[in-house]
């Protein structure tokens, strides 16, 4: 199934988020199945980059550094190591993070709050994942 995932664009002056094509296997029936399919696809793509040896990135250009500084974080590579990820653990971690409220998920602008909630996806639906950050100095 072909979907669109909204991704934050580095250095974008106008619109900061743009939809990017994203394809998953099958048609998920629940929000949890959608999260699992998304995590599986991302882990598989990561593992493929590791297999191709794309773990080290060339030095950043001045423009790349400035773009990343604009969002408050400078990163130096796509892969953080040369070890492949366990896909089952990646899926379990994504589902746990959703249940723990570490990120929110929206389908076509409507927030989904329960992993067991039934969903009906259509081709080219837009998914948005927002990672939440604690702003206090303590956990609770």
Key structural traits:
140 residues, alpha+beta, Ubiquitin-like (UB roll), 5-stranded mixed β-sheet, 5 strands, 20% strand
What does this protein look like?
The protein is of the alpha+beta class and 140 residues long. It has three helices and five strands. The protein has a five-stranded mixed β-sheet with strand order 2-1-5-3-4, with no helix packed on it.
Write down the domain tally: 1
Query: What would CATH call the class?
Result: Alpha Beta
Largest sheet: number of strands, sense, barrel closure: 5 strands, mixed
The CATH architecture name reads Roll
Strand and helix map with partners:
Blueprint lengths: L1 E7 L8 E7 L7 H21 L10 H10 L15 H13 L3 E5 L2 E3 L13 E6 L9
Parallel strand pairs: 1-5
Antiparallel strand pairs: 1-2, 3-4, 3-5
